[in-house]
């Protein structure tokens, strides 16, 4: 959260729920989806209870049923990451329901009620930040409480300065003060936790956020109209609304401002006539909404796989480079590389300054061993996209990898050192730099980089070069530093990660041989020979050890030729 480019999210309760899921069924997705559906059911029940405060039972039931099946909730329920939305919604509704119930009790304690409501809001905040807005909703609710016979008179007396403020109005002011104070305290602590910096959004994540007046304000208000339309008629849903999905409202004369005017006009009309709306009128509004949802549900749902999800999104939205980028990744994963490259090129064409498409395209070209084209892509990324973010370490890392594969180790070294200026806690960078330095014969410097990588992340299993890095580190300790203890530790670490690693087994036997522990070396070679009976040099080395044991002669290390090198 303290890193400047962090999105500043802190959602420990959401993470805890994932950990509990993982402890039961690890990465099996079915369990995660079951939990999401159960949480959605809880949200629907709470929503039904909330509706009972404002609508008749039949209208409340229909409203909650509509809420349960509304297509706009699909992503929050079916997507595993939607867990944050579901948990925060539960906390939000619990806080609001508790507060409403507390206002109907004859003897209520404002401090206790606001404290419990604030606690529930904080729990929601620890699931997703938006839950804290329930405190503002509770403040607004204070203005819409059922009419109190003395309310008008109390306000008139207060404005005219007559008499003492009524207990009803005093209680209202105290509650608003307590809720506002709690919200400000929580926001301050949250701000401190973020390193006293607000999250930085790029124009790719939120184009309106970085726009100037009046474009920013007009776009934000138009987005409210778009969301309202999707609630009423969810016919063009998309899995991603970032980037240029919705073009910015450029000025006052933009015709889309009419949608904003209609939205606010309708809102104020309903607000003005709220008390005159009978329950059957509300029912009619709900029925119309339900019909629009029914028409959408009758269409075949296409979000069953990632491929169909992004295909469906592209049929709705051709302006979002991120969707093309994601589709390219799906195609890449199923080895349809030419189609993946086409989608990455399309993403770059739509958003030429989005570094992710360059990185993905460069990776595919590297995997296809088209190193020259990959290097050209990374050069473009390095020269153009890095003008937006000079600290984008993946750009240096990926370009360095390609340069290393092209045997341009000095240029690769420059890229890695440049990346380390911005991120010294990245084990990938230290491993790759260590390999480059080993390639140049600078073994002591390489050893230093390998040690740094292991200090940062001792179990760096996800990185493909980790085992090679450990083997290289052990090789340096055997051949140059003569530190056999460290070498043995490295080989054993490799065998923990890859129990069948032939090189680690063989070189561990060499360590025993170098210590002149011939009996242990013999047992080691016998063990590895049972695993790899067709490898001739292991048989040869076993014979050397047995001859030494038979003759009782001293060993010289050249008999075995040293540890087997890493390819």
From TrEMBL:
One of its GO terms (cellular component) is membrane. Residues 196-266 form the DUF1736 domain. InterPro entries: TMTC_DUF1736, TPR-like_helical_dom_sf, TPR_rpt. TPR repeats lie at residues 321-354, 393-426, 427-460, 502-535. One of its GO terms (molecular function) is dolichyl-phosphate-mannose-protein mannosyltransferase activity. Pfam families: TMTC_DUF1736, TPR_1, TPR_16, TPR_8. It is found in: Endoplasmic reticulum; Membrane. SMART domains: TPR. Pathway: Protein modification; protein glycosylation. Its EC number is 2.4.1.109. It comes from the Eukaryota. Keywords: Endoplasmic reticulum, Membrane, Repeat, TPR repeat, Transferase, Transmembrane, Transmembrane helix. Transfers mannosyl residues to the hydroxyl group of serine or threonine residues. This is dolichyl-phosphate-mannose--protein mannosyltransferase. It comes from Argiope bruennichi (Wasp spider).
């Amino acid at each position: 959260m303290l890193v400047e480019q962090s999105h500043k999210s802190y959602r420990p309760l959401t993470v805890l729920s994932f950990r509990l899921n993982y402890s039961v069924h690890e990465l099996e997705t079915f369990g995660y989806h079951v939990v999401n559906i159960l949480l959605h059911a809880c949200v629907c029940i709470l929503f039904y209870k909330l509706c009972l405060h404002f609508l008749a039972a039949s209208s409340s039931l229909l409203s909650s049923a509509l809420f349960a099946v509304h297509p706009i909730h699909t992503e929050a329920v079916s997507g595993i990451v939607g867990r944050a939305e579901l948990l925060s919604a539960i906390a939000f509704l619990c806080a609001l329901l508790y507060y409403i119930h507390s206002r109907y009790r004859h003897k209520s304690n404002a401090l206790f009620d606001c404290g419990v409501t604030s606690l529930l809001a904080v729990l929601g905040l620890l699931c997703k930040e938006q839950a804290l807005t329930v405190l503002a909703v509770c403040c607004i609710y204070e203005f819409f409480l059922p009419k109190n016979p003395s309310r008008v008179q109390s306000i008139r007396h207060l404005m005219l300065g007559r008499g003492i403020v009524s207990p009803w109005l005093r209680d209202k002011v105290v509650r608003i003060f307590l809720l506002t104070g709690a919200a400000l305290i929580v926001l301050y602590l949250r701000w401190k936790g973020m390193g006293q910096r607000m999250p930085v959004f790029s124009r790719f994540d939120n184009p309106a956020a970085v726009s100037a007046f009046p474009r920013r304000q007009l776009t934000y208000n138009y987005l409210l109209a778009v969301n309202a339309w999707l609630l009423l008629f969810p016919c063009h849903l998309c899995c991603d609304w970032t980037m240029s999905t919705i073009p910015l409202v450029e000025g006052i004369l933009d015709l889309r401002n009419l949608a904003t005017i209609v939205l606010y006009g309708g809102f104020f009309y309903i607000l003005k006539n709220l008390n005159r709306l009978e329950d059957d009128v509300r029912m009619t509004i709900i029925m119309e909404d339900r019909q629009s949802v029914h028409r959408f549900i009758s269409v075949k749902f296409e979000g069953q796989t990632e491929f169909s999800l992004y295909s469906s999104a592209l049929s709705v939205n051709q302006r979002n480079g991120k969707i093309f980028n994601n589709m390219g990744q799906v195609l890449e994963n199923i080895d349809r590389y030419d189609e993946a490259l086409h989608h990455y090129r399309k993403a770059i064409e739509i958003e030429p300054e989005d570094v992710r498409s360059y990185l993905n395209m460069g990776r595919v070209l590297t995997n296809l061993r088209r190193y020259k084209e990959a290097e050209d892509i990374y050069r473009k990324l390095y020269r153009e996209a890095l003008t937006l973010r000079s600290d984008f370490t993946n750009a240096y890392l990926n370009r360095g990898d390609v340069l290393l594969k092209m045997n341009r180790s000095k240029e690769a070294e420059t890229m890695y050192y440049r990346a380390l200026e911005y991120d010294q806690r990245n084990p990938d960078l230290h491993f790759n730099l260590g390999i480059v330095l080993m390639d140049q014969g600078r073994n002591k410097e390489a050893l230093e980089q390998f040690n740094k990588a292991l200090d940062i992340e001792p179990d760096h299993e996800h990185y493909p070069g980790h085992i090679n890095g450990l083997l290289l580190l052990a090789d340096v300790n055997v051949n140059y530093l003569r530190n056999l203890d460290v070498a043995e530790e490295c080989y054993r670490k490799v065998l923990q990660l890859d129990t069948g690693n032939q090189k680690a087994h063989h070189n561990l036997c060499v360590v025993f041989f170098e210590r002149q522990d011939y009996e242990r070396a013999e047992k080691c070679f016998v063990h590895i020979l049972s695993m790899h009976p067709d490898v001739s040099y292991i048989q040869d080395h076993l014979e050397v050890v047995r001859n030494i044991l038979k003759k009782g002669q001293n060993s010289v290390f050249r008999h075995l030729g040293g540890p087997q090198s890493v390819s």
